[in-house]
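Journal club side-thread
Mid-discussion, someone asked how the predicted structure for our own chain would compare to the paper's figures. Pasting it here so we can look after the session.
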Amino acid sequence: MSYRDKINMDRIPQHVAIIMDGNGRWAKQKGKARTFGHQAGAQTVHTIASEAARLGIKYLTLYTFSTENWNRPADEVAALMSLLIDSIEEDTFMKNNIRFRIIGNVEKLPKDVLTRLNQCIEHTSKNTGMNLILALSYSSKWELTEATKQIAQEVKENKLEIDSISEKVISAHLTTNFMPDPDFLIRTGGEIRLSNYLLWQCAYTELYFCDTYWPDFNKEELWKAICDYQQRERRFGKTSEQI
């Protein structure tokens, strides 16, 4: 029996975040360059995004390129930037009614990449289905630092009282302020860490780690992960009896 048959469609997570790990190791196992793995991973993005939209997931946030990734070899970074342009298929987004968005320190992106991303954002802005968000040049420490600077400036300009700073105020200054916190975070590739990804937002997120490399993460793997999520009891600090 497929895991798809076990999914309770009334308990689909609203927001799923994914750390897409293992592209390079997948390619190495096949005797290929790391860029070959990234190309295969880009195809997986289309497969998983389409299926997530079909399942009724409202937000899918993909850790695509971290601020730390800028430290990778220059040729790999250049290949990743080129892949960003080549792999954006607006037809897929329009066919599945997906709205495309990005978060992160995008000013660091090459101009041609940012132009192409902004075009896709504009062209899909009226779509009403799932929001597909790419975290590009992103890290939580960068995001929280920027939010702190903005809040400090507002206090300095007497636009905000120190005693008025709350969790809600901080969340409103994050790049993710337009969406709810993730219900479920999936990390592929066998590593068991968050790698500076949505640290504030994942305070009560259910975490799922699997050994499957991202290029091999297919629909069945997604269904399996969602089935695991649906077996959990989300208490948010309460007891089972209080839920």
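Post-session note: The longest strand covers residues 59-66.
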